[in-house]
Amino acid sequence: MSVPPPEIAPGFQEALAGFESHLRFERNRSTHTVRAYLSDVVSFLTFATQQGCGQLDQIDLALLREWLGEQHRAGHSRSTIARRAASLRAFTAWCERRSLISSDPSQRLKSPRVPHRLPVILDHVEATRLMDVAAEQANDQDPVAARDRAIVEVLYGTGMRVSELCLLDLTDIAWESRTMRVLGKGRKERVVPYGIPAERALSAWMSLRTELLSANSPAAVFLGVRGQRLDPRTARSIVGRLTHDAGVPKLAPHGLRHSAATHVLEGGADLRAVQELLGHASLATTQQYTHVSVERLRSAFDQAHPRAARD
Asked: Which domain covers residue 141, as residue numbers?
């Protein structure tokens, strides 16, 4: 959004452009994240303009609340409204830090509580079934099927995000140590290991990758059918199709990431190891992201509690 939309008041446009620059160059946010933040802020500023508000210092708590009420009346979900409120808080907080407003009215803005739901994950048997079906479909040496198999093996085998997978370049793979260099959120790099099943799937894909190359193909690990870097939306479609074909719960790539984290925890890894694997800046994020299975909780209880039932 290099040019602010004309439907917002001129008094807002310079601040919006500055906020976009802040997100892109100071915070190093991804293109997707910047687009989401700006879309939410533009929605509010358009509403404010329609209400006769044309300057940043005219924004008050009542206007913010009225905008959130409009979101509710429009039928948006609680999670969407909460996300939009968070985007607006980031914008007004930035405006206050830059002295564009004297105080931040969003500090007292309450957004709806979003109920915490445990995400759908695959158990060990389902994960194995998914990988087996992906391998079966790749048996005929079709390059697309081999690529798709490698995608699910790498997503599950490393726990990386789908955006990180699509950004992988050939030079990011260290074959001898079975590790990958991953560019995560905020352009932070980390190194993640992968296992022998993922190595085999990657090797099979690499032997067929040239069949999808075009004259201007990048050095990306994963390519689309036209020879360009794989798009995250295509990767999501691939994961959805393979989970359907395998007869397991239909997941997005994030579900494979969560499955990987849960299975690593169930295998005995501590939260800090999982934090490093997932690339979380805060351990609190990892604690919210992962959940402890009933079986693991029961096992820990039986081993540790003096009044646990024992034979």
From this structure: 124-299
Give catalytic status of residue 110 as yes or no: no
Whole-number Å distance between alpha carbons of 225 and 227: 5
Number of domains within the chain: 2
Catalytic residue chosen out of the listed positions 84, 147, 149, 280: 280
Residues 6+ apart with CB under 8 A from 185: 30, 161, 279, 281
Question: pLDDT tens across 200-238, in order?
Answer: 999 999 999 999 999 999 999 999 999 999 999 999 999
Q: Which of 27, 181, 236, 254 is labelled catalytic?
A: 254
Q: Check if 72 is active-site.
A: no
**Token pair for 174:** 């260290």
Look up 280 and say whether it is catalytic: yes
124 is catalytic: no
Claim: this prediction has a pTM higher than 0.85? no
* Catalytic residue selected from 161, 209, 258, 263: 161
Q: β-pairing, 179-183 with 189-193?
A: antiparallel
Given 84, 209, 257, 263, the catalytic residue: 257
Q: Are residues 28 and 162 in the same domain?
A: no
Tell me, yes or no, if 254 is annotated catalytic: yes
Dihedral sign computed on CA atoms, order 27, 33, 38, 40: negative
178 is annotated as an active-site residue: no
